[in-house]
Amino acid sequence: MSHETTMKLTEGQRTGSKEQFLVTAGGNIKCLRCTASSTRTKQQCGKPALKTSTTQKCQIHSGRPHSPETLRRISEANTIHGEATKAAKAQFRKDAVLIRQLEDAVHVLKMGEGPRMRGRKPNGYRGVYSQQDVVRMIRERAEQRK
Ligand SMILES: [Zn+2]
Questions:
Q1: What is the pLDDT of residue 91?
Q2: What are residue 24's DSSP bridge partners?
Q3: Could you read off the pLDDT of 108-146 as tens digits, one per residue?
Q4: How many angstroms separate the CA atoms of 99 and 125, rounded?
């Protein structure tokens, strides 16, 4: 790693674009340069990018591509209870819609009393205001089961 103490900005840093190549060893070696930049100093990383990197990054800036097996292993190691997975969140949203519609159906059919649930309706919610809506809701649920 080179430690250049000059405060002069390169052309790429002035204009905001990134240097694509790194010339080192007295101009004898020209290679791809890491395109990551520091959040603190805003300066571009000075290391050469890994040849195997698809995003042109060095090993410090996670340029090493992961195989699907590695990604699965990382995901498995970081999964604690599975309640925040995409599938679990989608199921939670579907259940929220069902609970709202069932509450509306109970209100329409005069089967319950008391205050209604407050707040924003969940995404995908279709209002249940009449007995025809209750029938429609039941038919839609039955078709989803098939
Ligand atoms: Zn880097």
A1: 94
A2: 29
A3: 999 988 898 999 999 989 999 999 999 999 999 999 888
A4: 10
Nearest residue to 60 via CA among 84, 44, 41: 44
How far is the centre of ligand 1, averaged over its atoms, from the C-alpha of 40 (Å)? 14
Long-range contact set of residues 41-49: C-beta below 8 Å, sequence gap at least 24: 42/13, 43/13, 44/12, 44/13, 44/18, 44/19, 46/1, 46/2, 46/4, 46/22, 47/1, 48/22, 48/24
Give me ligand 1 centre to Cα 18, in Å. Answer: 12
Look up residue 73 and give its amino acid.
R
Q: Where are the domains of the chain?
A: 1-65, 83-145
pLDDT given at position 65: 85
Distance 79 CA to ligand 1 centre (A): 28
Which ranges of the chain have pLDDT less than 70? 1-16
